[in-house]
Design a protein that fits this description.
The structure is a single chain. By secondary structure, the chain is α+β, with helices and mostly antiparallel strands. 16% of the residues lie in helices and 64% in strands. It contains one helix and six strands. It has one helix at residues 2-21; strands spanning 23-25, 33-48, 54-74, 77-85, 88-96, 100-122. Strands 1, 2, 3, 4, 5 and 6 form a six-stranded antiparallel sheet that branches. The protein starts with a helix and ends in a 5-residue tail after the last strand. The model has no long low-confidence stretch (mean pLDDT 90).
C-alpha cells in the first residue's frame, strides 16, 4: 500500500510539473511523443547519401491544444516550407535535396497531445 502511495505521489508530481512548466515524453523517430503544455524546439540530423535524393518526413498525431511545426535546413538555410499542424493530422512531406547533412527541426508551442514523427532519406518520387 505504501508503494502505491509513493507511486501516486510521483505521478502527481510529474503531472503538476507538466502543467506548470511543460513536459515532453518520448524519443522521435522511434516512439510517439506525448506533450503536456510543452513549448520548445528540438533538432535532429539526417544524412543524405548519393543513392538518396529526398528527405521524407511523416507526421501524425492528435493535439488537444497548441501546434507543432516541422521544417528541414541545410547549412542554416531552410529547405522547403515550414509545415504547421493543429488538432488531428496525418501528413507525409517529401523534400527534394542534394547529398549532404540536413537538420530536421521540430517546434512546439503550448502543445498538449500525442505526435509521432518519422523521417528518412529516400529516392524522390513526386507521385
Amino acid at each position: 500500500m505504501r508503494t502505491l502511495l509513493v507511486l501516486a505521489a510521483i505521478v502527481g508530481g510529474v503531472y503538476l510539473y507538466g502543467i506548470n512548466y511543460g513536459l515532453a515524453l518520448g524519443l522521435p523517430p522511434f516512439t510517439p511523443v506525448y506533450y503536456l503544455n510543452h513549448t520548445g524546439e528540438r533538432i535532429y540530423g539526417v544524412r543524405v547519401a548519393g543513392g538518396s535524393d529526398a528527405v521524407k518526413i511523416k507526421v501524425n498525431g492528435e493535439l488537444k491544444k497548441g501546434r507543432v511545426s516541422v521544417w528541414v535546413t541545410h547549412n542554416d538555410r531552410r529547405v522547403g516550407k515550414v509545415r504547421t499542424y493543429k488538432g488531428t493530422f496525418k501528413d507525409e512531406v517529401k523534400i527534394k535535396v542534394e547529398p549532404g547533412n540536413y537538420t530536421v527541426h521540430l517546434k512546439t508551442v503550448d502543445a498538449e497531445g500525442r505526435v509521432r514523427y518519422d523521417w528518412v532519406s529516400t529516392k524522390f518520387k513526386p507521385f
